[in-house]
Amino acid sequence: MTESVGVAESVTEAERGSTSRGTASTAVTLATQICRFDDVLGAAEADRLLEEGCHALMDEVRGRGAGAEAMVPPTWRCADQAARFPSLTAVVTRLAPMVMTMLGVPVVDPRVSFGFTMHNELPPDARRQDPPVRDSEAPGSESGSGSTHRISFIYHLHRRPRGFTGGQTRIYDTTVREGHPGIAESFRDVQPDHDSLVFFPSDAWYQVRPVASPSAKLLDSRFAFHGRLGSGPR
Q: CA-CA to 160 of 20 to 30 Å: which in 59, 101, 192, 216?
C-alpha cells in the first residue's frame, strides 16, 4: 500500500454546476465539502481489487440465479465487502482522522463498511434514473438502529483504458428553507478515475450520472466501493 494518497481537493464556486444562492428570506444554500485522494493504493493493488471485485460480483450474480455466467447485468451491488478487502479498510481507517477534520464531521469510534458496485449501463432518460439519495437516510443510519452514518466515501476502479463514458458522482449542495434541508441546484461532479477516493458528509444528496459501455462487457463497466464511516455496530 503506497504512503502517497494524493491531495485533498477544496471546492471552489467555479467548479460547481450552478452557483445560485437563495436570499435570507427564502433559502440558504450550504456548500457540500469533499475530500478527494488520487493514487490511493497504487496500480498493482488497485488492479488486484478490481479483479477480486469482479469475481465477487459474478459469484453473486450466478448465486442469485440472475442469468448465465456470460450475462452482465446493467447494475449490481455486492453488500458487506469490508472483510474481504482489508487493504481498502486499512487506508480508509488511516485517512479517517484527516477527513473528519477537513469535512468538520467528527465520528466517535469510526467503523468502516462498504459494498462493491457495478454500473454497465445507466440510461440518460431522466424518467428512468434513480433520484438523488443520501446515506444518512439509508437503513442502519436511524437513531434507533444503534448505528449512525456520518461520512460516506466512494473508491473508484476501472480497467485501463476506460471502457465506459459518464459515471460521475454528482454531489449536491444543500438548501435550508425554514429549517428544512433540501437539494440545491448547485453541485459538484466527481470523475470516476481509477484508484481515486472521495469522501463527503453522509447527509449530502448524491447521484451516479448516466453510464454507457459500448462493448457491454463486464470489465468495461464503472466499478466502485461505496462505503460509510459511522459510529456504533457494524
A: 59
